């Protein structure tokens, strides 16, 4: 599979502070890629390097097979970008702003602009300076999606949007992926990334600490398990089982609680030697996976 983005050993320093350190990863064509990390982790720095808004201290990037530094003009026509701090001329109306940006993108049918504005509930007669943060974000989303770019780079795309419009945004991302477009999405909202992302990367202090599908990250994460038995069991049977930690029994000796990583095969085989009356597991949400990875994982390189 071809890559829409290739990052190799990317480093960016700001004086004595490091923004990125040895970052290596690939984003495949046609996938939705979630890029996670708290403020200061290096997410926006990565995006700005990809767009040649800032220059790296070391390493290299390729975007749609091109070098952003030397092929920026061509790339800008093929990319839809929404900055985390989207700003445009406040004196324009929404309609004037979007039509001007459409011309810069090589031309966009008016019907396409109107369709996106209607879906997002954006009043095109309003003046930009009079818009709320949420409505300015809608303008940013329309300008990013309107020319059906090969690659969408979205930095905190739902900032300021209400929950209903967040769902509309997710619909737009899903439609873009079905259309073969690539979406690189930085976000703090874990649920929206979990809903649409094929893979996610987690960044910590400018280094990559996890890169995998949501399903595989969840499978490797810690879950809580509770097994009920018809009669008391011995805790010794469950100590030391692969993937099972912190096993405890309630006062009756009939309810086992523990933390489980990976496959439940070993614990289920022991449990099956008894009469099981109940079995409950709690799958971790992406935000739990993120916090676990961020707190515990050692930084690494991945592609």
TrEMBL record:
Annotated Gene3D superfamilies: P-loop containing nucleotide triphosphate hydrolases
Membrane topology per record: Peripheral membrane protein
> Which InterPro entries does the entry link to?
AAA+_ATPase (IPR003593), ABC_transporter-like_ATP-bd (IPR003439), ABC_transporter-like_CS (IPR017871), ABC_transporter_ATP-binding (IPR050763), P-loop_NTPase (IPR027417)
Q: What is its main location?
A: membrane
BP terms from Gene Ontology: response to antibiotic
What's one GO-annotated cellular component? plasma membrane
Q: Where in the cell is it found?
A: Cell membrane
Q: Which UniProt keywords apply?
A: Antibiotic resistance, ATP-binding, Nucleotide-binding, Transport
Tell me which domain of life the UniProt entry assigns to the organism this sequence originates from.
Bacteria
Read off the PANTHER family from this record: ABC TRANSPORTER ATP-BINDING PROTEIN, ABC TRANSPORTER ATP-BINDING PROTEIN NATA
Checking Pfam families in the record gives: ABC_tran
The molecular function terms in GO held by this entry are: ATP binding; ATP hydrolysis activity
Name of the molecule in the record:
ATP-binding cassette domain-containing protein
Q: Which family does it belong to?
A: Belongs to the ABC transporter superfamily.
- Domain ABC transporter residue range list: 5-230
Presence of keyword DNA-binding: no
């Amino acid at each position: 599979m071809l890559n829409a983005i290739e990052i190799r050993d990317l480093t960016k320093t700001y004086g004595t502070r490091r923004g990125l350190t040895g970052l290596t990863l690939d984003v495949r064509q046609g996938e939705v890629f979630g890029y996670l990390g708290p403020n200061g982790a290096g997410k926006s720095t990565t995006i700005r390097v990809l767009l040649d808004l800032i220059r790296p201290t070391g390493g290299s990037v390729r975007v749609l097979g091109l070098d952003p530094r030397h092929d920026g003009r061509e790339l800008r026509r093929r990319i839809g970008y929404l900055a985390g701090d989207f700003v445009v001329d406040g004196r324009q109306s929404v309609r004037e702003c979007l039509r001007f940006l459409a011309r810069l993108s090589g031309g966009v049918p008016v019907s396409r602009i109107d369709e996106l504005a209607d879906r997002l509930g954006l009043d095109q007669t309003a003046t930009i300076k009079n818009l709320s943060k949420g409505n300015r974000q809608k303008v940013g989303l329309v300008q990013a999606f309107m020319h059906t770019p090969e690659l969408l780079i979205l930095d905190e795309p739902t900032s300021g949007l209400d929950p209903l419009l967040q769902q509309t945004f997710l619909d737009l991302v899903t439609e873009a992926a079905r259309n073969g477009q690539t979406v690189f999405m930085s976000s703090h909202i874990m649920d929206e990334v979990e809903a649409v992302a094929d893979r996610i990367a987690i960044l910590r202090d400018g280094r990559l600490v996890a890169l995998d599908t949501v399903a595989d990250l969840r499978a490797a994460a810690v879950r809580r398990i509770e097994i009920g038995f018809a009669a008391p069991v011995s805790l010794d049977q469950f100590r030391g089982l692969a993937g099972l930690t912190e096993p405890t029994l309630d006062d009756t000796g009939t309810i086992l609680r523990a933390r489980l990583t990976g496959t439940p095969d070993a614990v289920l085989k022991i449990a099956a030697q008894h009469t099981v009356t109940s079995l409950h597991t709690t799958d971790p949400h992406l935000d739990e996976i993120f916090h676990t990875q961020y707190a515990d994982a050692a930084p690494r390189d991945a592609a």
